Structure formats: structure tokens, C-alpha cells
Amino acid sequence: MNRVHRLKFALWLVVGLAAAVAAARFAFGLGATTNLSDATPWGFWIGFDVMGGVALAAGGFIMTAAVYIFKLERLHAVVRSAVLTAFLGYVAVAVGLLFDLGLPWNIWHMIVFWNPHSPLFEVGWCVMLYLTVLSLEFFPVPAEEFSALARVRRVLMRVRLPLVVLGIGLSTLHQSSLGSLFLIMPYRVHPLWYSPLLPLLFLVSAIALGMMMVTLESHTTAYLYRRKPETEALATLGGAARWVLLLYLAVRFADLAARGQLAQLGTAGWRVGFFWFEIAAMAVVPVVLFSIPKVRRSRAGQWTAASLGVFGIVLNRIDVGGLIHAGRGNVLYIPAWTEIAVSAGVVSAAALAFLFLVERFRVWEQRPADPQADPLTLPEFNKVGMTWLGVPAVAGRTVYSLAFVMAASIGFSLLAPQPVSSRGIDPQPVRRARGGQTLWIDGNLDGYGVSFPHEQIQKRLGGDSSCVKCHHMNLPRDRNSGCYECHRDMYMATDAFRHEWHASPAGGRQACRECHDPALPRATATAKRCEACHKDLIPAGTPIRVKQYHAMGYVAAMHGLCIGCHAQLAKQDGKPEFARCAACHRERRNVIDASVPATPEAIGRGILLPPVTR
Amino acid sequence: MSAAILTDTTKCVGCNECAIACKEVNRLAPDAPRRWGLDDGLSARNWTSIVEGPKRTFARKQCRHCLDPACVSACPVGALSKTELGAVVYDNAKCMGCRYCMMACPYGIPRYDWDQGVPYVRKCVLCYDRIRAGGRPACTEACPAKATIFGERDVLLAEAHRRIRENPGVYVNKVWGEREMGGTAVLYISNVDLSFLAGGHPGGNEPLPERTALAMHSVPFVFTGVVAGMAGLNWIIARRIKRQSEGPDE
Questions:
Q1: What is the mean pLDDT of residues A590-614?
Q2: Best residue in B212, B217, B218, B222 to probe A by mutation, most A CBs within 10 Å?
């Protein structure tokens, strides 16, 4: 495999992984697949996919401006690929946004429901319009290959200048408005980043980023396709980027000084460290490198400076987008691997589209040779298809499909069933209710419980014969097992049967066939019912039928047991308050349990009270 | 009319009747402590909660219904709106789930259905349907201690100041919500500092939408300026290039 094939293989792997995560994202919601929370509602998908993506695509309007407005003919060689990158970048932004939006099928609402006060409304409109402009700017390139499109192409070439001007106007607006988004969050964005000048800072850094991205992309594709990079033109670009970055530094530090935040730069704290790291990567080091003429004109120098700058500015977008926000209640947001996988998948898909288009259309002066066209690297593949999989030289759709499917299956296995199904609830083991005639029911000992007049209720329901009205299942050789013995978690279903235990020595080392008929497949449905051996398991006459041995969560079980009768009685006796929550949830009690050591956690949960001092 | 709620934390005994009434009236499902929740008791299914502050003070947390709400200004599709009665309400049908309102709210009130495949933003709507029909919000009706009361904002503001004046030494001399963020419809008086209710930040008096107003108002001018500037530059540069190419002939 050559360089291009290796890259494409890797990209397909990432796309496959992202596809699996994307399926989980839409099946189980944002909570199951992201680390977003009520404290940090925006995260990596906004910071990187949307804000970073838009900024990365700034090369389109910078290069069209340089070539068509300022007539810098030296840069003409890179304008087509810059427009293509911008177009694919914006498509990636739109696709990435679909993952982040809670209701992505409503994205068109922005077109019909207007709120001109919202910067996001403006960003949305500008992105939609600019995507249209970019597609019209790029369309003449593929149109070259089709004679039927010649007339369309001529029309588009004639309106190119107005399109370029419109594109610059729209880009200026939304590149800066991405900064305006955060003006409304002075209490959330850290003061080292929050500034009334955010729109200006975003615009200036996007211009520099656009230039450096074009540089990076030119060198990367030059390496991939063994093309000659446009080093001379890129040196001009690097020189210009240096001035833009210097302007950025000047504005940023002047702003910090004006807001009196400079003193904070000397303090400790990871956010200050992040600030310096970001500033060094995005501006200081690239400025220094681009200022040395020898470095500016060398391939390695251009590559190093540009990749550092691109990394730094994208990091800046991720920082402002959520990473450095002042956490409410000290909640710190760290992206989940699933979030990063989806973002990487979107970028990889865009990169694959880029490679597809440059191989088929004349994006550079010379179209790179299609590696698959070389018969030596791909012998007879098209004739025999799948059977050639074992040959190392094989590169093509079969291998890519395999990469995709393989990565997707790995992705599905990595998506742990626990977090996906638990709906964001941590395990909380249930403690038994304490008391005598009156029970204090508070499974997780948080102090919010119900004092349950057990004896009184028992009398009301008919004395000793009434036990079975509630106690619908007992442990073997027990008469009235407590609720907590099967419903062992506050919110999650727990296994009341314990298969492992039955198979263990403690459980009598039951051979499989004690429960499973050897002639039938071993499954819950075909196994012997528990009551067949444990005759006392289900008390006679209980109205509650045990359908399966996964006991529901304690809270749901308690509510399910009480609420039905309460609602019925409320109607029957005309006492509506009898069916209300407060009928049982009346008091908060600080439970004192001498058996629990007085750890701070126990005190915090109300298990133990520190001595009251008043 | 401008509907408002006044909560007096010195009267609140922390019985949670308000929160229970809210759940019943708004038909909110039971909730569990979730990974993505905050420890203030609010969630997509709990629109109000009792937060315990210093000196065993109980304060009810809920949407403040700002007079100039940041969430309303932020929503790109206008799913949140400030109604004529003063309630800030949410329209399921318009929302596209960008969560900009949650980012914009200075009090961190709106919560999200993180566990749902079709999630919505959830917060107190001041029982808009009930107050429009002439009723009171369920929480104020349920409060047995009259710690949280409903009425006209001006009347409640006067009442708050009266209580502070007539009980010297009991209250901190401040009505929370009178001026913060440009004023809110939910007012508090208390014997302790209530900044713990607002996520700890001091909270200025400037309405947050004003911070974006300048940037948004300049949009048409920036656009026209950039487009005209670029077109002009292009014309000048093209002319100069043309002259230069004609130059040697003369």
C-alpha cells in the first residue's frame, strides 16, 4: 500500500468507529454518549467541530480575497484547494452540528423562526449562505470535466467576483460572531478569555488560521501524492500570517491590560497554564518561526510553524467553547472518548471526500496520478474481487469497507452496556428499613425517607393474613423477606436470582440440568421456574405476580406497591391529599446509625450527625 | 401586569411542598440523581427545589424570569419567549436543541433531557397556563408557611421593602432580583447572602443581552462596509494593474 492508501485505510477505520458511536448517540441520547451535563451543556462538539471547523475553513475566504481582490497571482496555485477545503470544512461543521443538536431534524427552524438578537441565529444564517457561496465557487472545477455543464460554468465564472466579495462579507460576519456567542456569558467564560473584543479576536485569529491551514494542507498533500509543494507562494503567506498573529497578540494583551487581568497571568492554576500554552502555540512560536527568512522558505519550517499555529488556534476555540469555563459547583468537563471519536470521524469523512475530489478533478495544476490506475499495485483485483483480500498489494474498496466494518464492530463492543443503559445513574445499594411497629424507609440513607406505619397498615389490611398483599416473594426458607433483599439498588434493576451463586458451591453447585432441560437451548425462557424447587418462594394468595427475576429499582418498587392503593383509596374516600407525594414524604430525618463510622461522607449523607452547636 | 414571586427565606421551613406541587401540576416524572445533574436539586423533571444555605437557611431555587432574559435573547429560533404576563416560557415545537439558552443563563436554571432520544430544555414556566387563567403558580399555592407568594412585581417589591424596614436586624438590607441582571420577576429577601443560589458569582445589574447588543447591531454595517470595501479595493487594484500593463507602451 502506498501513502494514500494507508491514509485512506486509517481514515475509514476512524469513520467506522464514529459510525458505531453515532448510532449509540441517536439511539440513547446525548447523556449516554457524551460527558455533557447541566453544568457544561456545550463541549467538544461545539468547541472543535463547529467553532474549530469554521475557523479551519477560513482559508477559503482569505485565499479568494488574496487572489481575486488583491490580485496576488503568486497564490493562484493554492486557491482551488483552499476553496475545496473550506467547502468540505463547512459541510463537516454542519454534519458535526447535527450530532450535537438535541433535535437535529429541527435545524431548518433557523430559516423560518427568526430571532435577530441571537448571535447564533446570525452564525447559522451566515454559514448556510456561505456554504452556498462556496459550492458555487467550487462548482466550476468539477464542471470542467463535463461538457454538458459548460454553460453553467461560464455563468459561474462571470459572477465569480461578486461571489468572492459576498463570501468575504459573510465570513467576516460569522467568524467574528462565533466570538459574540460568548459575550452573554461573562460569569461562565474565564476572565483570561472573556472579553468584549471576542468577536475581533476570533476574526483576526481566523484569518491567521486560514493562511496556516492552507500551508499545512499544501504540504500534507504534497507528501501524500509526492507533489511539489508551492513553497514560494506559501512563504509569502507565512510572512503575512506573521503580521496577523502579531496584531492578534497586541489586541489580546492590550485587552487583558485594559481589563486589569494582566496580574492574573502570574498566578498559578491550570487555566493560566493553558493560557500560556495556547498563546505560545497559536501565536508566539509561529511568529518567531515565520520571522526567520530561512525558516519561512523551508518546507520543514513552514510545516512546523503552520501546524503549531493551527493546533493552537483550534485549542483556543475548544477552550472558549467549554474547556475553561468556570465550572458551576466545580464541575469540570472532560470530553468522553465517544465525543472525540465522532469528531474524528467527521473530520476523516471530510478528508476522504477531499482525497476523492482531488483525484478526480483538477484542483492543482497537475492532477495526482490515481494510485489505483497503476496495474502493478492492483493486479486483477477488479476481475476476481473478494478473493484477493490476502494479497498485501490489494488496496481499494474491499479493504476500506473491511476497515469500516471492523472499526464499527470494535466501536459497538467498546460502548459499555452499563453507561449506555444506566441513564446516568450511579449504583446505589439499598439498606434495610429500620424500626419496629413503624419502619423508617430510606434505602440510600440520604435522610429523605418515609416513616411507614407497618403495624397500622397491616391491621387495616386484615391482620396476619394480609402479609401476602405486599410481600410477594420470599427468600427460600424465609417467611416475610424485606423489600431490600431483592430490590437491592435504589434505581437500577438487580438480579434476584443470582445464577452465578446457584452454580457455585455455596448455592449447592447445581448442575446445569437441574434447571435447564438438556434437549432445549439454555435460556431463561426454557429454564425451570424457581418455584418448582423453592416451594415457599411465592407465598400463597399473593396478588402480585413475579414475572421475571430481575427486581426493579427500590424506588420504583416502593412507589409501585403503595401508589396504586393510595390512588384508589383517594378516589373512594374523596381524600385527594391521600394520593399526593406528601401523604408519605412528610419529613426529613437525620438517621443516626452507630454502626457506620463517622466519615465526612457519612455525615454529609445524614447517616451520622455531627454534634449540633447553636 | 407583571407577575412575580417573592420568596422570604426566613419563613421557609424546607418542607418541599412547593417542589411536590410543581411536579404534580406540571406532570413531571419521578427523577433520580443523574450523572449530569447538579447538586442543587433542579433537573429536567424538577423545576424547583429547596437549597439549604448557611445558618440552616432554606431558599427555593427556580427560574428567575428575568425582565430582560439572556435565554430569550440567545435562542436562535425564538423557542423561549418572555410573555406579556412576565413568565419566560418555552416552545417544544420550535426548539432545535442547541442549548445556547443553558449556556447563556446567568443562574444556570434551564436543564436538559440528557437521557432522552428526543430531548427538550426544561425549566419553571411560572405556571403560565394557570396565571393566564387568573390562578397562582402551584408552588405559591402549596406553601404552608406563606414563604413564597405570588403577585404584581411592584406590590411584592413594596412588600419586601416593608418587611425589611419593619423587622430591623432580621433581614439583609437587599431585595435579590430588584436590580440583578436588569431585574427579575422572582424576588428574594433573606437573613443571609443568597449568592449561593446563583452559582456563587456576584451578579451585576446589567442585563446580559446588552452585552451582545452592540455586536449584533453592528452586523449590517460591518457587512456593508466589508462588501463595499472589498469591491472598491478590487476596482482600484484592477485599474492600477491595467495602467501598469499599458504603461510601457506610452
A1: 48
A2: B212
B78: nearest CB among A102, A113, A187: A113
B185-243, pLDDT tens digit by residue? 999 999 999 988 887 776 788 999 999 998 899 999 999 999 999 999 999 999 999 88
Is the alpha carbon torsion for A7, A9, A10, A11 positive or negative? positive
- Residues B58-79 have a mean pLDDT of 94
Q: In chain A, which residues have their Cβ closer than 8 Å to the Cβ of B42?
A: 38
CA pseudo-torsion sign A39, A43, A46, A52: positive
The pTM of this model reads 0.85
Q: Which of A450, A377, A170, A383 is nearest to B222 (CA)?
A: A170
**DSSP of A213-271:** HHHHHHHHHHHHHTPPP-HHHHHHHHHHHHHHHHHHHHHHHHHHHHTT-GGGGGS-SHH
With CB atoms and an 8 Å threshold, state whether A331 touches B238.
Answer: no
pLDDT score recorded for residue A468: 86
- For residue B42, the chain A residue with the least C-alpha distance is A38
Query: Residue A83: which of A362, A286, A308, A307 has the closest Cα?
Result: A362
Residue type present at position A341:
A
Q: Is B79 on the interface with A (CB under 8 A)?
A: yes
Cell of A72: 496576488
Across the interface, of B95, B96, B234, the residue whose CB is closest to A69 is B234
* Confidence check: pLDDT of A337 > 50: yes
Chain A nearest-CA distance from B155, in A, is 31
Q: Which residues pair with B186 in a beta bridge?
A: B5
What's the CA gap between B102 and B99, in Å, rounded?
5
Q: Closest Cα of chain A to B69: distance in Å? A: 11
CB count within 10 Å of CB B44 equals: 24
Summarised one tens digit per residue, pLDDT across range A516-543 is 888 888 888 888 888 888 888 888 888 8
Assess whether pLDDT exceeds 60 at residue A318: yes
Nearest to B80 by CA among B127, B20, B108, B122: B122
Distance CA B26, CA A577 (A): 17
A165 chain-B contacts, CB cut-off 8 A: 227, 230-231, 234
Q: What is the pLDDT of residue A517?
A: 84
- Indicate yes or no: CB of B114 within 8 angstroms of CB of A71: no
Report the C-alpha gap between A110 and A332 in whole angstroms: 31
| Cell, residue A253 | 494583551
Residues A333-355 have a mean pLDDT of: 93
For the beta carbon of residue A3, count every other beta carbon within 10 angstroms.
12
pLDDT at A88 over 60: yes
CB B57 within 8 A of CB B190: yes
**Residues whose CB is less than 8 angstroms from the CB of residue A105 and which lie 6 or more positions away in sequence, other chains included:** none
Q: d(Cα A497, Cα A475) in Å, to the nearest integer? A: 10
Cβ-contact A357, A84 below 8 angstroms: yes
Of B14, B106, B114, the CB nearest to A29: B114
Say if CB A8 and CB A312 are below 8 A apart: no
Are the C-beta atoms of residues A264 and A308 closer than 8 Å to each other? no
| Rounded Cα gap, residues A250 and A236, in angstroms | 22
Span A479-494, pLDDT tens digits: 778 889 999 998 888 8
B208 touches chain A (CB under 8 A): yes
* Rounded Cα distance, B67 and B183, in Å: 6
d(CA A271, CA B234): 44
Per CB-CB distance under 8 Å, the chain B contacts of A107 are 96
Residue appearing with cell numbers 434495610? A432
Whole-number Å distance between alpha carbons of A407 and A413: 10
